[in-house]
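Hi F.,

I've been meaning to write this up properly since the lab meeting, where we talked about keeping a consistent format for the predictions we share between groups. The idea is simple: the sequence comes first, exactly as it goes in, then the structure tokens exactly as they come out, then a line or two of notes. No screenshots and no reformatting. I'm using this chain as the first example so we have something concrete to point to.
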Amino acid sequence: MTAKVGRVDHPVVAVNNLEPTREQYKKLGFIVPPLGRHREWGTANVCIMFSDDYLEIRGVGDPTKFLAGLDKFLVHGEGLCGVAFNSKNADESYAEAIATGVGIEPPKHLNRKLALEDKTLDLHFKTVMLAHDLYPGLTHANLCEHLTPNELRQPGWLDHPNGVISFGRLVGVVRDFDAAQAAYTRLLGGENVKREENRIFLDFGEGADVELISPEEVERRGDAQPARGDAYMAAATLLVKDIQITEKTFQDNAIRFRKVDGQLAVNPEDACGAHLYFQQA
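Output, unedited:
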């Protein structure tokens, strides 16, 4: 990989108001930790944890600070707004990218305080922003190195009533497949980019993969979001231990969903704009 890009670390959902979002995701059957704030940025978030990845739900905490494009995204509504890939060492990722001519910014330190009932978590990260032309179809992408990984997952946070254990796939929309293939070959290396007649797969060797499809295909699937243009992250699939338990959780909590090829597709209005699918692991 040409920038030492690791597996999918966490997709991000952008929302207007975090508190009602926390309650809605509890109805979806997730254990939702308390809200935290990035000290260096103007963003606040809650992070729903799984064993090897997680879902970040991000909102505006201080509009006078750097928002990493969140405010511009929310102009067109809530929903999936990007993904962070894991970096085992942000400084090495940056050096490798520079050496191979990949557009990248120097690593920046981020700190997030998270107040629990009995203690305050002091979480630290390094984030590396990628040039916009390197991630077509994913809206926004960066690399993330966790400096305090053992603090991220607290007891009980992984025991979700809906049975979710991890992400399985992210789906992005692109119109120019040649350009997308070239961009991801630069970022990931050709061995990780697999092109078929009407789609491209990004395979990281572990964790969730990424499927890139056309605007026509996303329309056929019912996940089109025209306000986002021709290139954006359209949907995400979560893997569950028992799909029947997941379905009962949705029914008990009045979550609207449809069945698609054995998956449960939640109505985006019940997931704060995110197009989420739940699939048997």
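Notes:
The CA atoms of residues 200 and 212 lie 5 Å apart.
The chain is about 20% helix and 35% strand.

If this format works for you, I'll send the rest the same way.

G.
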